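Backbone-to-sequence.
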């Protein structure tokens, strides 16, 4: 087991409320470098709420309040940190592809430009490198000046991943990134996640048990705001500790 210092991310005793409603209870979670973790559980159980804690997207909800500790490389992200810098370090890919209404090139270059990168040669290199890492360069290299909206859904999602990669994140959060895609596009994204693990830590929310089994090293099962079980994916799926996990995985509820 890794020590605290070796964890990329460590969450301890996390509670989250929307007004009087408690959405997450006493969550303990950790993630290592170059590790992919899957979050599974029924709709409304707290999975998406949890990953939004990790880059402080819940800050945008006035009624939200949080207690507990969330450490990124040992630093409390709810302490005096630059939130825009945090969101660069912890990128997010959403359920539905959301490319900006601009060219393919400008989508990938947007974040670096906002952070002051103006050198065209450096931007060209960064865009190509990011698109290559997102397995999209060969399909997009002749369409860089065309609207991102002209891409298929699967390519739009890979573009959104490239846009995140361009910011050199340490962790990429993915909130059901393939739920709006066809099986072929889903397979491409899953292959891509396998490759991205070499460079990034990844947390993916998924409703597909098969997807979790294919792409993650560890799996967390959420139920009604509680983290019921978190362990190596193979063990969670074949020999879960908690009966509720077994019931969910075997299809007895959810």
């Amino acid at each position: 087991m890794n020590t605290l210092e070796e964890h990329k991310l460590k969450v301890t005793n996390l509670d989250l409320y929307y007004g009087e409603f408690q959405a997450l209870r006493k969550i303990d979670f950790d993630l290592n470098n170059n590790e992919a973790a899957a979050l599974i559980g029924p709709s409304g159980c707290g999975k998406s709420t949890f990953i939004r804690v990790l880059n402080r997207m819940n800050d945008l909800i006035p009624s939200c309040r949080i207690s507990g500790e969330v450490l990124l490389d040992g630093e409390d992200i709810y302490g005096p940190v630059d939130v825009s810098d945090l969101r660069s370090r912890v990128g997010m890919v959403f359920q539905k592809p959301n490319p900006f209404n601009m060219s393919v090139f400008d989508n990938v270059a947007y974040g670096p430009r906002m952070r002051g990168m103006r050198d065209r040669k450096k931007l060209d290199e960064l865009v190509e490198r990011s698109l290559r890492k997102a397995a999209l360069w060969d399909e997009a290299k002749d369409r860089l000046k065309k609207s991102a909206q002209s891409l298929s859904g699967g390519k739009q999602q890979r573009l959104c991943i490239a846009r995140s990669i361009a910011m050199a994140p340490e962790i990429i959060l993915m909130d059901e990134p393939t739920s709006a895609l066809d099986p072929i596009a889903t397979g491409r994204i899953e292959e891509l996640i396998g490759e991205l693990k070499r460079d990034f830590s990844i947390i993916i929310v998924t409703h597909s048990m098969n997807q979790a089994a294919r792409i993650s090293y560890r799996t967390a099962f959420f139920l009604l705001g509680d983290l019921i079980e978190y362990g190596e994916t193979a063990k969670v799926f074949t020999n879960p500790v908690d009966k509720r996990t077994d019931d969910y995985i075997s299809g007895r509820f959810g």
